[in-house]
Amino acid sequence: MSKFKELEEKLTSIVKDAGYDVEVALCQSNRPDLGEYQVNDAMKLAKEYHKSPVVIANEILEKMKEHDIFTNLNIAGAGFINISLSDKFLIDYINEIKNDITKNVDKQQSKKIMIDYGGANVAKALHVGHLRSPNIGEALKRLANLLGHETIGDVHLGDSGLQAGIVVQEMKERFPDLPCFKEDYDGSDFELPITEEDLKEIYPTGSRKTKEDETLLENARQITFQIQKNHLGYSKLWDKVSALSIKGIKKTYDKLNTSFELWEGERDSFKYIPEMMEYLNSKGLTYISEGATVMDVKEETDDKEIPPIILQKSDGAYLYATTDLATIYSRIKRFNPDEIWYTTDLRQELHFEQVFRAATKSKISENVKLGFFGFGTMNGPDGKPFKTRSGGVMSLDELIEIIKDECYKRINDNIVEKENKEKLSEEIAIAALKYADLLPYRATDYIFDPAKFSDLDGKTGPYLLYSTIRIKSLLKKAEMEGIKYENYTKLKGKTERDVIITLLNMPSVITRAYESKSLNEVAEYIYKLTSIYNKFYSENKIIIEEDNELRESWLVLSKTIYDTNMLLLDLMGIKCPEKM
Ligand code: ARG
């Protein structure tokens, strides 16, 4: 249990001692001149116990005085108890967490959680709209792990849509002699005559052609359908194209420090569809409407129109909802998770609402909690989803390059050798981009501003990296000078107290982030912690401090902040370079 939680429990028992029953929630004081924390429960208790809040506050205060962990106890206003923590309490706290910063987190009862994020579409370039899912999904996965949960991340590739037919059609036109196009193709392997580079151009070209020619479009649809039905030649080709495309997709996710335990896609759900359809039919949940197989998911309490979910079109083709429902079916059957989470653009909310309802109504997801955690869009300065200068869709790689150039300009040539500057600017760029992406509340839109994101001063990734590296250099310097530091024994000054109090609040920040499935508070928190520590750093000359005990304590505190920063950066999927 974290020290903060321990403190709250202690207060709960003190209040109980005074004769009142309430679970105390400790709030940081908005009047730091009066105390570091506030206990506001006397107000609530007054109503319950029909007594004046000041009287109750005084009774509680008297009990608090019996404990040496509090100082400066006083009552303000109508019965707010202000408390500050004793030096001893804060000193003990640092010593308790200094060697294992994960003690400063409240672990939870472990659950098995599958997280569906990433969502790249095979054979198409990842575009700006694909930035947030890996960032948020990866961070949520790390957050769940930190709190003690078991997680399985699944990229859930988009690999059964029309792009399959378009690409295969285009390949057929360019390479009609490939064995997979022969009447008597036997499924044997062959070499794919294209590179990753070629693939980047094949889909856009094919897509343009189908837009211009109705028969090509119809043909691409047919091929897509054939692939769904496992047409030997087309499926083989599409498998090979997918494998090539996935190589590129992996590289981009690697850049973003995002990884997946499962590299499955929509197509992996196909083998479960017949079984699932039979199950739904047997429960009498599906019916035919205009030739399509559909299922009602509306509920009496709905205040908006929830259309039926379409499972199979009249021509036999399956849709996005079908593969998503079958994926839930398969995940539960194979992995038996407690929860399944999805992070996609909020514009897919209705789709997930329908799929979740279908899963619940049919009892496919019995005892499994399904959660949709949608995000807002990253917009251009015009407030619309970010585009290239010419108004086209910008690829994710291009977007990363823009930030990288911005960071490159800012790297001081004296610090880094020329040959490492490329790599360093990419590391800083990723930090800039990811931090900016996690800083707003998940569901809020925000504006892409490369200069602002890359700034070394301000609420940015680079500022955090720079500050963290500076602590590391300090610790290195101490080591080089043979200064040993093991224990935290002496606390001096207001800023130092502020650093520790801020640290003390970390577990509740982490818990709230988990509850809201948004990292925004963590992002704000690491900035706050870093800024306060930096103030402390500039107020004290740590290495040359003459009081040995103080110097040792300050180094221990610095190391604790360093470890905390590294933990929180890692939580956000941000790597910290050696120097910058
Ligand atoms: N491929 C989809 C897209 O690009 C996202 C997939 C999200 N996950 C899911 N299970 N549907 O929009």
Describe this structure in words.
By secondary structure, the chain is α/β, with parallel strands linked by helices. Among the domains are: 3-85, Gyrase A, domain 2; 162-255, no CATH class; 396-571, Isoleucyl-tRNA Synthetase, Domain 1. The protein is 51% helix and 9% strand. The chain contains 20 helices and 13 strands. The protein has helices at residues 3-17, 41-49, 53-64, 87-97, 132-146, 162-174, 196-212, 214-228, 232-255, 273-282, 320-335, 349-361, 396-410, 418-438, 450-454, 461-480, 494-504, 506-516, 520-539, 548-571; strands spanning 27-28, 37-39, 70-76, 80-85, 112-116, 150-154, 286-289, 292-295, 309-312, 339-342, 369-372, 378-379, 446-447. The strands form 4 sheets. The chain has a 4-stranded antiparallel sheet with strand order 1-2-4-3. The protein has a 4-stranded parallel sheet with strand order 6-5-10-11, with helices on both faces. Strand 7 and strand 8 (292-295) form a beta hairpin. Helix 7 packs across helix 8. The radius of gyration is 29 Å and the shape is globular. The model has no long low-confidence stretch (mean pLDDT 95). Bound molecules: arginine. Arginine (ARG) is lined by residues 116, 119, 121, 156, 158, 324, 342, 344.
Topology:
Layout: H1 3-17, E1 27-28, E2 37-39, H2 41-49, H3 53-64, E3 70-76, E4 80-85, H4 87-97, E5 112-116, H5 132-146, E6 150-154, H6 162-174, H7 196-212, H8 214-228, H9 232-255, H10 273-282, E7 286-289, E8 292-295, E9 309-312, H11 320-335, E10 339-342, H12 349-361, E11 369-372, E12 378-379, H13 396-410, H14 418-438, E13 446-447, H15 450-454, H16 461-480, H17 494-504, H18 506-516, H19 520-539, H20 548-571
Parallel strand pairs: 5-6, 5-10, 10-11, 12-13
Antiparallel strand pairs: 1-2, 2-4, 3-4, 7-8, 8-9
Helix pairs in contact: 2-3, 6-7, 6-8, 7-8, 8-9, 11-12, 13-14, 16-20, 17-19, 18-19, 19-20
